[in-house]
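Job type: complex structure
Entries:
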Amino acid sequence: MIHLKVSNLHKQFGGLHVLKGVSFEVNGPELIGLIGPNGAGKTTMTNILDGAIKPSSGTVYLNDERIDQLPPFEVARAGLGRTFQVTRSFRRMTVLENLYVPALAMGHAHGKARLREKAMEVLEFLTIDHLRNEFAQALSGGQQKLLELGRLLMLNPDVIILDEPFAGVHPKLMEVIYAYIRRVNDEGKAIILISHQMDSIFSLSERLLVLNFGDLIADGPPEDVKNDPAVIEAYLGAEEEETA
Amino acid sequence: MTKQIPNIAGVIVLLFLAAFPLVYGAADYDYIMHIMITAFFYAILAASWSMLSGYAGQFSFGHMGFMAIGAYTTGLLCHYIYLSPEPTGLCTETPFFGQWLVVVNPIGVTSTTLTQDCLRQAMDAWGGRVEVTRMPVPLGILMGTIMGAIAGFLVGMLVLRLRAAYLALFTLGFSEILKATISAEIDITRGQAGLELPPLYPDGVTLFGTYFEPTDKLPPYYTMLALLLACLGILAWLAHSRFGLFVRALREDQDAAAALGVNTTRYKVLVFTITCAMAAAAGAVQGHYVQIITPNLLFLLQMSLVVAMAVIGGIENFVAAAIGAIILQVLLELLRNSFVIGGIEVDMTIWRLVFFGLLLMITLRFFRNGLIAPLIAYFGRVGVAEETVAKRASTLTGPGGGPHRTEAPD
Amino acid sequence: MEFPLLFWGVLAWMIFWAVAGAILIKRRYLAQDLDTSNASFIGAMSGAALGPVGLAAVWARTPKSSGYLTTALGLLTVLIVAVTFSFADPDNICVTSGGFVASQFVNGLIIGIIYGFMALGLSLIFSILGVVSFAHGEFYMIGGMVVYFVTAVFLPGINPLMGVLAACATAFAIGAIFERLMLTPMYHGKIDRPIEYGILATFGLAFTLQYFVQALVGANPVKAQRFIEFPRWRFPAEADPIWIKTSRGSMTLFEQVTISSPRFTAALTCILVLLALLYLLHRTWTGKALRAVSQDREAAAIAGIKPDTMNMLAFALGGMIAALAGALLVQAFSWLPQVGAIPAMRSFVIVVLGGLGSLPGAFLGGIMVGMVEAAGTGCVPDPQKAASYIPAYGMIVLTLTLLLRPTGMFGRRFASGAHGQF
């Protein structure tokens, strides 16, 4: 049973208070949307969950293991994977090699043939199997996003954080990503989806978290959140708050 | 079938190199052998440097520093450590398995101080009664390699956060500090005067019934060739294992690799340790072969020679880098002559390095994978094109080296 | 025996607490989650200056430590080293002779100005192209060579200014051509790993120029004439000591400090050119365009600036600055094709110390390195060993700076892109 518990997460950069006590829990294979205006702290929180930066205070437990002080590679091994806002494929490695990296790093390798089979299966699902021996840098921006998602499948974590997976992606590939999210969710993994594209978020997620200036101002089903006065104010009244 | 061409060519080259000293019999035998041994030495440096800088992306200008660590470690050990059955009573010494481990006092470079050599004084007093043994050369080389590995490990730990230009400057600084220290500590290292080393095989060696003098070129030739092949073998094995995959991921994007579960720290330190140990081993063997080492080994121009060889061969393919180093070293020696163009005599002895530099820049600009690596790639790719659906194969390389397809290493 | 014990003892104590401070204070900052880029540096300085007491104070006062405090602690560290030295070695000329100290100080300052000037060129190139030019020493060498050949071989008796101008023009041309041929493709996405490529390309240029000059002119040491001979002059005429006394080749201040004419002219020219350069950078359109490109290439391009032209200009200017330094110093030091190696290494140290890409940092760093070097040559008891170790001092500063504070004294943090990351 997947259980991610984020408790009272604070993060300060010098005088800037980016996260002000964020707490939430993920139980089981939930599909959660995380939204918030620019500068709300979404990326900072992702980086903390991933281990790239350490929180000022607060704890993160994944399946009863404390992960907030672990380096990123151990967080990945503990079962939390992420994509990056700006795609970060291994540009001068082939598509297949890109997929082998997480599988081998996790020790998932069960012989050459099975590894290749698994990778090919992932690539076929993502519709980029014909590119398997190309360098990643030869892929289009959208295809590289798919490749990044493919690497996560090979990593096979319990919790997946997708940071803006739809940004700059061709509508055709978008459907592939939709299918990917549903499939991964059906396979029993929890997904935290960060996006500015409200349509996608509202159509996909079962639960919505709203961050605003480091505070978690809403947590609930999308329909409720949509009508939450605090959320409406955060999105419409953001400018007033900035000048205040 | 054509896919096998690089392999076949490799076997032919190997057989040629193995048979060369046996069949070659011209008058300049020693000279040619010397060139070949030096070429192998540079090949080891170029190959290990290309693994570190091209394959793993850790751009280091300190490679000659590690080479010098290997050479000076064995040099100093052979120079100062002796095993004596009796205590000298003059030197620093400790009991050692029933014998005495004697550390000779440093006496500097001036010949008048030779009488201050405590061991020499003791031996004079014994009057030839006692035989002392020097540090065995293989043990010295081993110690040099280990010291190189340790230094590589430490530097690797220190530079975890440094990338690109910062890493290049740090490693350059490391190398310069080492050079200054060796130059300054004249009492111990003899500075620019050079530290003398015993020959690789101090008592000569007998191979298949033939006795070779310590000055003969054949044993060091095979020693250096064996070291080169061992290094290439280790590098090839690493490149084809998950190590190769991970260090390339590290080169491409360290943060992404870490997020996918790769222990980036471990692999970064490991690649430094291994390649620096190889440089140190090459330095130690070469030191014993030429029998004298000076801090000039550490000049930046020496480093640039290695860099140029690796780049012209193919910076991301260590086999190509090694081949490039051998060809270029031989070429540079063969170019020691002059020719006449349009009435102007061009003395190639002084101009050859200029052409070498121009070749380096042209290679950099127009052949980013070097001149040798694409040849290997060209033949290695034939089979791949049949196998894949991909129409436009990128720069793929055949056996042994860099950016090549890792078919699911285990 | 007393000297080494006391001196090295204090030094070991300081190093121990500096290392402890660097690690502990950084931990402290990390734990409180503050910006750690200064933490190791402050920790090291307080540890070195005041030992455990200073560390405790900084620990308790985290994060209330300012740049001024750090500077003060740094100065205190230097002072403690100096005082210990004077106690440990009371007979040393640096302790007994005030005049010697003043003389070393002034000469250190002058050499520092020239070093700083040269490093400025390197920093200019880095701030705009994001490339550390490993050919900087070769530009320095070219400068000296052109001056020597113009003034002493081709046109003897010509005004040395012509030689200097020719050196600048040559270096500018080489820099511009090289940039256009080799570095421009970097900025058009044609190169896979631009940072490594930039290092290798300048490295290749250094290699080629070095051997080209060796092949062209051989490797015999030469030296140019003094550019300017001072008139005989005393001022004020009747004072004791005389404030300024000049002879043909040198100038003496207060009958204590002697400055040779070549060094004086070199430093003065460097300062004048520096002022001209500052005017160029801050008061002209070209200078503003250069600075704009150094801050944001794309934005500058949108504003109608051609980044490629600015790159070329910056590289050529940087090379020209190095050549000018070489041209001015050829009258002071003898010239060899390898002459550029030492100033190039100094420049690397200085730009890292001052912060890669920071122009004021490069200049101040240069002065600091010049001073340290003067102290090193003048005061260390074993002069032969000291001379061998001088390159090492600088490199130790370089490696420590990279480890403790990669941004240097005045550096800004380059986010990514062509400038690379830490």
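Summary: Residues 78 and 135 of chain B are 5 Å apart (CA to CA). The domain at 2-78+136-339+346-380 of chain B is CATH 1.10.3470 (ABC transporter involved in vitamin B12 uptake, BtuC).
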